[in-house]
Structures are given as structure tokens and as C-alpha cells.
Amino acid sequence: MRSRLLLNHLLIVAFLIPFAIILIITSCEGEEKIKMKDLVPTEIQGWKQQSKVEIYDRETIFDYINGAGEVYLSYDFQKLWVFRLVKSEKPNIVVEIFDMGLPEDAFGVFSHARESEEIGIGQGSEQRGGLLCFWKGNLFVCIFSEGQSSETKKAVLDLARKIEQRIKVTGEKPKLLACLPDEDLQQQSVRYFHLHTSLNYHYYLASENILNLNPRTEAVLGRYKLNQTYLLLVHYPDQNDADKAYSNFLNSYIPEAKDKGVAQIEKGKWVKAEKEGEFVIVVFDAPTEAYAQALIQAVRDKILKLSSEEVKNK
Questions:
Q1: How would you classify the pairing of strands 93-99 and 139-145?
Q2: pLDDT digit of tens for each residue in the chain (314 aa)?
Q3: Same CATH fold, 175-313 and 39-166?
Q4: Distance CA 193, CA 234 (A)
Q5: Residues 132 and 157: beta-carbon distance below 8 Å
Q6: Closest listed residue to residue 38, CA positions, set 83, 90, 2
Q7: Where are the alpha helices (DSSP H) in 122-255?
Q8: How many CB atoms lie within 10 A of CB 233?
Q9: What kind of fold does domain 175-313 have according to CATH?
Q10: Which of 14, 93, 95, 206 has the fewest CB atoms inside 10 Å of its own CB, making it the most exposed?
Q11: Is the sign of the CA dihedral 231, 237, 240, 244 positive or negative?
Q12: What are the φ/ψ torsions at residue 124 (nearest 5 degrees)?
């Protein structure tokens, strides 16, 4: 009798466990949704937030962003919340809030298409036409109107400021940015990324992944005003990975350079590459070999300074 009662009890528990798990997951998703919804004002200048909030993850993002989802997936993208605000006889305003997992990747996706001057919202922002984007903490936020006017532009700006104020966390930019020399650097050109496809988007290198870029690598690319020279800095998980990538780059891109790491290419431009511990530094399209060397030396100095500071902080 006791064994039968125990068996019945176990069967009931086994039956209820899946429902308990579903309730917990549903509850967590609900709390997450409420938390994100709290960031967006229910009304702004007559535009009212619709009750329906669209949510997308790494599996479903292409249902919303067809063709551009790869950009977000190349970072640590987690989820996207889409809010719509409506006003009678006015264009809708759309708010997109991306959880990029890490502050560094929130900056990275913000930097992907940055062109305009800073407008002072969040930890980095720009406004182009009816689109305003900013990043803060691990969030990347885009706000746009489905039709432009001075009224919608003002509403979008006010909305961005209110959302930014409600995001209470901040995050650090990628430390790698500190290794780019400041002189003549075009700030709007700076990109932070992980993958070969991202590098090719900003500066086409090769069809093959000759620098062995992967989700564990960090890379920054910047353009310098003097003859549009590009500087690429890649940080690898360890020195062995950096050695392999450096060797592969020389053999594939400038085999004529051999171990020197420097070559003059078409139109009289120069390419120079060097390795520093876990880092690979490459200068593209330099006007002279001396200019390429000066950029690389400046990066080396900054890497050593950064490494020294990290040792002190341990």
C-alpha cells in the first residue's frame, strides 16, 4: 500500500515538473518583457505605445531584419525588443532595443555603420535623417519614424533621451580602442568586430579568412586622414594563435615580403604587418614605408602601456 502511494506521488510530481518549468520560463520572459517595456515611455508628444511588443532572438531575428541579421549575429546578440508608438494621422515611431550581451559588442554594432558626429545621448550616438541610434551598457537602441518631418524628428530625439535616462547601467568600451594612435585618426571610421566577414565589409582583405578571425578574436580598424591609410589591430586568445595568423597573413597576402612583413603594392601604397605577443598589427595603403612603421610603433607603445596597467590592476 505504501509503495503504491509513493508511486502515485512520484507520478504526480513527474507530471507536474514540465508545467513548473514552463511556468518559470514564462514568468522570466514576462519579467524581462516588463523590464524592457519600462524603458520606453507610454506616450511622447501624442504618440502612444502599442500594447504588443515584438521579441526576436538569434533564431528568429531574420523574421524581422531580413538580410541584415548577420551583422548582429556576428556579435554576442541575445534578444531584440520592438516597440511601436502611434499617433492619429502621423507616421509611426519604432523603437528597437537590442541586448548585445556585452557592452563591448553594443559598442561594436553601434560602430558598424557609424558615420555622423556624436549627438550626446548614451555612451555613443548619432542621428541620420529619421534614424537615431545610441548604445549604453549592453544595449543598442535604434529609433526611427516611418515618415519624416520636423515633428517626428523632435519626438524621436525626446524619446531617445528619455529611454537613455531609464537605462541605469553603463559599460566599458573595448580596451583595444585605447591602442589606436589618436593623431589623424578619423573617429567615425573606427570599427570593433570579431569576424572575417565584418573586416571584409569595412576593408576587403580576401575571400579566405587569412587572419583566422573568429568569435574569440577582437579586432579594431581605423582610418587615418593622411592618404586614407587603414590600421588593423587584432587580439588573439593566445600567442600561438597570433603566430599562426601572422604567418598565414604574410604567406597569403604579401608573400613577396617573406619575413620582413612589408611590401609595396599597387599605386605605390605600402602594407606592413608586425606581431606583438598576442596581437597582430597591420597597416594598409600607407603612403610610405616610414609612415606605416611609425603607426605600428605607436600601436606597440600603447599595447605595452595597456599591458603594464593591467598587470598593476591585478
A1: antiparallel
A2: 444 444 444 444 344 444 343 333 333 444 455 588 899 999 999 999 998 999 999 999 999 998 789 999 999 999 999 999 999 989 999 999 999 999 999 999 999 999 888 999 999 999 988 899 999 999 999 999 998 888 999 999 999 999 999 999 999 999 999 999 999 999 999 999 999 999 999 999 999 999 999 999 999 999 998 779 999 999 999 999 999 999 999 999 999 988 899 999 988 999 999 999 999 999 999 999 999 999 999 999 999 988 767 745 55
A3: yes
A4: 10
A5: yes
A6: 83
A7: 150-166, 196-202, 239-253
A8: 23
A9: Protein Transport Mog1p; Chain A (3.40.1000)
A10: 14
A11: negative
A12: 175, 135
Distance of CA 292 to the CA centre of its chain: 27
DSSP string across 151-178? HHHHHHHHHHHHHHHH-----PPPGGGG
b or e along 279-314 (b: 16 or more beta carbons within 10 Å of the residue's beta carbon)?
Answer: bbbbbbbbeeeebbbebbebbbebbeeeeeeeeeee
The C-alpha atoms of residue 8 and residue 11 are separated, in whole angstroms, by 5
C-alpha cell, 91: 507616421
Spatial distance between the Cα atoms of 97 and 95, rounded to a whole number of angstroms:
7
Grid cell in block for residue 249 = 597573413
CATH of 39-166, one of 3.90.550, 3.30.1360, 3.30.250, 3.40.1000: 3.40.1000
User: Is residue 94 within 8 Å of residue 146, measured between CB atoms?
Assistant: yes
